[in-house]
Amino acid sequence: MYKNRHVCAVIPARDEALSIGKVVSELNATGLVDRIIVCDNGSRDATAAIACSCGAELVTETRPGYGAACSRALAAIRQTDIVVFVDADDSLQLDEIPSLLEPIVAGVDLAIGVRAPAWRARGSMTAAQVFGNWIASQLIFLFWRQRVSDLGPFRALRFDILQQLQMRDRRCGWTVEMQVRAIQLKLNCREVPVHYRARIGKSEISGSLKGVVIAGIDIIGTILRLALNSGRNPLPDKLVSTPKL
What we know:
This protein is α/β, with parallel strands linked by helices.
């Protein structure tokens, strides 16, 4: 619990046996998270077994994709106040979770951990990742006149808000879709600087040219789809709040 709010952590994971145990253990050690749900997204190693042995709840999703894994994990949640999204690769400093939870408790709808240059370790982000973030932020400003600094995966938001965002992307466009839909709904969003370190192991996305290209296509395609469809399939003008636990 965090200030009487029930908190659930969601961790999408694929072939993260080297790091998942450390991540789950550190989350438990914070004492702030009531549930930890790991979605095994087709791992070929011991990711699932290690996650379970460290105290996480396990769900599986055979369809590949970051968004598919997040969606499957969220389907396992019936009630909670706040959802925190965490990467399985040990790139995040989990003792910084309060910096994301506190704004939510104070009334913010979505808090996004920003990997600002001064806060990230050397080599933690590739040049392609930095450039991709810049391109995405420019497109978001072009279409919605809203400044976005980062598409960082470390984020927290109210569960009732998340349920009504109508998330559809099942691949790498998940994070940017969440931010754009929040902008479209004029939600109260806040960027919070967080530390970012080099991940454990090699990423299937940022660790290869093919992965970078596919991720870039997913992200840009998601932005363009949301821009083109914003008038045809609008989101509700106002979200309906649900009672806290």
